[in-house]
Write a structure and sequence with these properties.
Elements: H1 2-15, E1 26-28, E2 31-35, E3 38-42, H2 49-56, E4 64-66, E5 70-76, E6 79-88, H3 91-95, E7 100-103, E8 114-118, H4 119-126, E9 135-138, E10 142-150, E11 163-166, H5 167-173, H6 175-178, E12 187-191
Parallel strand pairs: 6-11, 8-10
Antiparallel strand pairs: 1-12, 2-3, 4-12, 5-6, 5-9, 7-10, 8-11, 9-10
């Protein structure tokens, strides 16, 4: 009976994997590359692909370029914690239908110093106080303004994050990687046609 219960709990977790509101309509674009006669599929695609998809494929309303997850030191006053997140284009929030508890999805990562955090990250930084409009120093270099707080994703989601920052800030630092067709250095997410 115990074994059956454990198997049931495991199956329930597996079936509920990546349960977010727009699950059925969200996709990552993959690339297939062949080296020495062996084909492999990667999540990395060229930086120019996302904008080209939106411009050239009828029915695609959103496409979001996302840099690989990175860990950054977040400092508020004398408190510092490492948090992991993504530089992402605003369409990312629409594709995954992120649920905002503070701020507005339409304007959350429009400015280079905007920062969206999850509820748990906001609580680690500011306790139970509202986080919107507060300042966080990242990697002891730049100050960012909390422009939105989203509900935490379920623990069994593939793309976990503590924060999202504007892709524009990443692009400004990594122009050679982002602005060419031969560098497969980014992830790109799209909804289904018409999504």
């Amino acid at each position: 009976m115990t074994a059956a219960s454990l198997i049931f709990l495991w199956m329930e977790d597996e079936v509920s994997y990546d349960e977010f509101p727009n699950k059925e309509n969200s996709y990552i674009v993959k690339s297939k590359q062949t080296f020495d006669g062996i084909s492999n599929v990667f999540d990395g695609v060229p930086g120019l692909l996302g904008p080209a998809i939106k411009e050239e494929i009828p029915g695609i309303k959103y496409a979001a370029r996302v840099a690989w997850k990175q860990s950054s030191l977040f400092s508020v006053d004398d408190q510092g914690i490492y948090q992991k997140g993504y530089y992402a284009e605003p369409d990312f929030m629409d594709i995954f239908a992120l649920q905002f508890v503070e701020g507005d999805r339409a304007t959350a990562i429009k400015k280079p110093n905007d920062l969206v955090t999850t509820q748990s990250t906001a609580e680690r930084l500011f306790g139970k106080e509202p986080a919107l409009g507060k300042t966080v120093r990242i990697d002891n270099k730049d100050n960012h303004l909390i422009s939105g707080v989203v509900k935490d994703l379920p623990k069994n989601s593939t793309y976990q994050f503590d924060w999202l920052a504007p892709f524009e800030a990443y692009e400004n630092q990594q122009q050679l990687m982002v602005r060419q067709w031969l560098n497969f250095s980014l992830m790109t997410f799209v909804p289904s046609l018409g999504g």
